[in-house]
Amino acid sequence: MKRIIIMLLIGSLLILGCTQKESEDMDAASETLKVMYHDEKSFYKDYGMLFSSKFPNLQVEVIPTNGVLNQENDLVSEMRKLIQEKSPDVLMLSPITYEQFANEGILYNLDALIKQDNFDIDGILPQSIELIKGLSNGELFGLAPFFNSMAVFYNKDLFDQFHIPYPEDQMSIDRFFEITHLFGNQYSDEVQIYGTDNVFNNNFFRFIELYGNSLGLRLVDRKEQKVTFNTEAWTKFVDRTIQSVKNGAIYTGPSQPSEVQSYEESLFSQPFIAGKVAMTIDYYSFVHQLKEAKQRSKSETFPNWDVVTFPVDMTSPGTTSSANPGIIFSINSKASNIKAAWKFIQYIHSDEFAKAISKASKNVLHVRTKYIPIDEGHHMEAFYKLKWNPISTGYSKIPPEFWKKFREMAELEIAQLLEGKASTEEAVKRIEDQGNELMKMELQKK
């Protein structure tokens, strides 16, 4: 009898265990996670396929932003409206919207979740964590699975040919421009060689903005909400870059012809790949363009290249303003499924995901840098060696629409300057004056 009772008890426990397991499975099957992303197709391509294969019982509903956010309005307000209407669990944010929403209490603090699950963030690129925390008063309300950064690609063959020392990590902006001038008016097989080119194609203002930021110069006073371009430092720097163009040190022609008939033509029309420039500034994605071009090249000569860190401001040689975290994923503080949202964010920042994606991703780098593919003979650490200077901090109060209009206007003014139709002093003054008018107009719309 005693044995029978024991067997019944064991059987009851087994049945109870099975019932609980079935209940858990049913709960999992009925779980729905609402994720904000560009659109459903790109979500599954970038994250969803791997995530769904890992968690097949978790249904994902994509809340698209493409075609939903009104580009004519304040995008921060549009994003806030979308969150209120659709109540996504996981939010896709830019650094600017992240900063704004973190300070408004819209985002769920991740610190407790990280501690609770002993989630390893030590293996994540420290620069990314530090920048995100810097945007939200030292607390962590989001994580960014990928990052992007620029570095200096250089043609070792051209440096050897003209007996010029190679660029080095953490070289100053001054040194970078010194090198470009060493290649001014040089020729190789009757082809003019330039020190560098403009990665922004015909928009030379963006070139000036990029390098100016690296010197610590800012276009806007974020507290006063005013354009600060008509300064001695900006005037001096603009004049210097314009003189570099006139001296033949910087290639300003189009990086691609206006009508490209094939991808291959587009690839080989790039000045660095064509052997026209000794250095170019570009993102990590350019590594794969170089590899592809080499495979397709019918020429016996192809640039023997390497890469070093983006030029730095010598007052802060260990930092760069040329890197950014891209998309930051956060949990809605009013999420209906915080557990599933955290599961998603954990997974896309995990070793498992980083290892799987590292072989497929050609354009961006995962924050778990140990999974960045090793490229023999090339200094890939240049893309993540420096700390990040968070130039976007505090800019959430500047209307996003301002930047597009301001840069379009400034591009036209710099074009006039390059054509000799204005002096540097006149150009920087007009850019600041018109910029402040644009700022007033956009602020009035808020």
- β-strand percent reads 5-15%
The count of β-strands is 18
Helix content: 40-55%
Query: Structural class, from secondary structure content?
Result: alpha+beta
Uncertain stretches of 5 or more adjacent residues: 1-29
What do the pLDDT scores average to?
Answer: 87
Radius of gyration: 26 Å
Annotation field: number of helices: 16
Looking at the structure, what is the overall shape? globular
Distance between the termini: 80 Å
- Major β-sheet, in short? 5 strands, antiparallel
Summarize this entry quickly:
By secondary structure, the protein is α+β, with helices and mostly antiparallel strands. It contains 16 helices and 18 strands. α15 (400-418) packs antiparallel against α16.
Would you kindly provide a written description of the structure presented here, covering whatever features stand out?
This protein has 446 residues and is of the alpha+beta class. 45% of the residues lie in helices and 14% in strands. It is built from 16 helices and 18 strands. Strands 5, 12, 13, 15 and 17 form a five-stranded antiparallel β-sheet that branches. Strands 3-16-4 form a three-stranded antiparallel β-sheet. The chain has a two-stranded parallel sheet with strand order 1-2. Strand 9 and strand 10 (226-227) form a beta hairpin. Helix 15 (400-418) runs antiparallel to helix 16. It is globular. Mean pLDDT is 87; it is low at 1-29.
Summarize the helices and strands and which ones pair or pack:
Blueprint: H1 2-30, E1 32-37, H2 40-54, E2 59-64, H3 75-86, E3 90-93, H4 95-104, H5 111-116, H6 126-135, E4 142-143, E5 146-155, H7 156-161, H8 173-182, E6 186-188, E7 191-193, E8 196-197, H9 204-214, E9 220-221, E10 226-227, H10 232-246, E11 250-251, H11 263-268, E12 279-283, H12 285-296, E13 305-309, E14 319-320, E15 323-324, E16 328-331, H13 338-348, H14 351-358, E17 365-366, E18 387-388, H15 400-418, H16 424-445
